[in-house]
Amino acid sequence: MRIFAGINWNSQPLMAESTLKHKTTVSLFWSFADKFGQQIINLGTGIILMRILDPAEYGLIGALAIFIAFSGILIDSGFTRALLNRKTISPAEYSTVFYFNVGLAILLYLILFAAAPLLAELFHDPRIEAISKVLFLSLLFNAAGIIQQTLLIRKADFRGMTKVNMTALLIAGTVAIAMAFSGYGVWALVVQTLLYAFFRSLFLWFYSKWTPLKVFSIRLLRSFSGLSNKLLLTSLISAIFNNIYPSIIAFFFPNAMKQVGYYSQANKYQEIPFGILSNTYRQVSMLVLPEINEQTERLKRVVSKMIKSLAFLSFPIGFLMILIAEPGFVFLFKEKWLPAVPYFQVLCLAGMISPFAFVMNELFIAREKADYFLGVEIIKRVLLILLIALLFRYGIMGLAASWVIYTWLTLAISLVLTRKLIGYTLTDFFRDAFPYAILAFVSVATGYFITLRIHQNMLFLLINTVGVSLLYLLLCSLCKLEMTREVGQWLNNKRDEKNNRKA
User: Fold this and answer.
1) Where are the domains of the chain?
2) Nearest alpha-carbon partner for 347 in 428, 246, 232
3) Which of 7, 10, 127, 204 has a Cα-to-Cα distance from 343 of 20 to 30 A?
C-alpha cells in the first residue's frame, strides 16, 4: 500500500523525496511480508499444537511469559533503539553493546535458574521449576543475535530478516509438532521456544556476516545512556504490564493453569493481525520518521497518512474477528477451547487500537522525546493498576475489560502529547480514523443480522468473511474515503505497469 502517496514533499529536494518514498515502500513490503509470514506459520503450527495439547500446558508457558519479556528487555537495555537512532555507528560501539548484552543475559539466566523453585511455589505447580530452567535458556540465544538484527534493520534489509525469521519458525514448529504427536506435552512448547531463539540467532550471524571485535569500552557504552536509559525503563514497564495478566490469573484464580491457557491463547490469536500491522508500521516508522524529524508539518502529514491506513485495515479486521470468533475457534481448535472465546472477543476491542500507539511511540523517539515516552508509560501503568484493582472483583473477564479501557485511554493520553509535538490532535485522530471504524461496524452488524440463523460453522465463516469485506470496501468507496482512492490508484498503477511490460 502506498501509504505516503499524495503527500506534498515540497520541503525536500526531489531526489531525497524519491529515495525516502522508495525506501519506505520497499521496507513496508518486506516488513509486512516478514510479519505476515511469521503469523501464518505461527497460526498453522498453533492450530495443530492446540488440537493436541491441553489448555493447562499452554498455561504453564503463559505464566512464565512475564519473566521472559522482562529479561529480554533488560538484555537489550535500550541500546538497540539508540543504535538505530544514530546516523553513524563505529565497529567498536557495536562490539561493546554486543558483549554487554551477552554478559547481562548470562547473569539474568543464572538468577532465574536459582529462582526456579520459588517460581514453582509462586504458581502452585511443581512442573514450573524444570520448565523454567530450560525455557529461560532462550534468553542467551536471543542476546547473541541482537546486534546482527540491528545491522539488518539499519540497512533496511527486511528481506533478509524475513528469510531468517521464517526459516527459524519452520524448523522450531516442525520439531514441536513432532514432539506433541509423540506425547511430550508441554515440552513441545518449551523446545519450540528454544529452537526458534537458537536458529534465529544462528541465521542472523550467517546472514549479517558481522562478528564482534575484541573491544569493550565503558566510555562508549555510557555514550548511549541518555536515550537508552529512558527507553530501557519505558520498555521494562511496558514488558511487565503487557504480560502481567497471565501471572495474575495463575496466582489468584482456581483451576489456574487452564484459565491461563485460555486467556493467553485468546490474547495471542487476537494479536496476530494487529501484531502484523503494529510491527510493520513500527519498523517503517523507525526508518522514515527520524529522517524528517525536524519538519513538523511534514511529520504531521505522514502521521495522518499512517493513521488513516491503519484505521482502514485495523477496524474491519477487529470487528470481523469478534463476529466470527466462536465458529472460528471450534473450526480451528476444537470445542475444548470454547472458554477462550469471550476473552478473545473482548481483547479484540483493545487489539484494534494498539497499532496506533506504536506510531505515536515512534514519533516520540524520532523527535528524541524519550522523556515523553517514559512519562506516558508511567502514567499509563498507574492507570492500569487502578483499573485492575477496580475490576479484579469481576474475575478474568473483568481483567480483560480493564485492558480494553486502558488501551483506549492511553491512546488519548498519547494524542495529547502528539498535539504538543506536531499539532496532531485528538480531533485530527477522530477525523482520520473513525469514518473507517463506523463503516467497519456497520458492515459487521449487517453480516451478523444476515447470518443470524446460520448454524453451520464453515458457511457462517465464509459468508461473513467474504461478504463483510466486500460490503466494507463498497461503503468506503461510496463514501469516497481517502484510503479507498489510494488502493484504487495503486491497483491502476500496477495494471499500467503490467500492460507496459507486455507492450
Assistant:
1) 1-21+255-503, 53-242
2) 246
3) 127
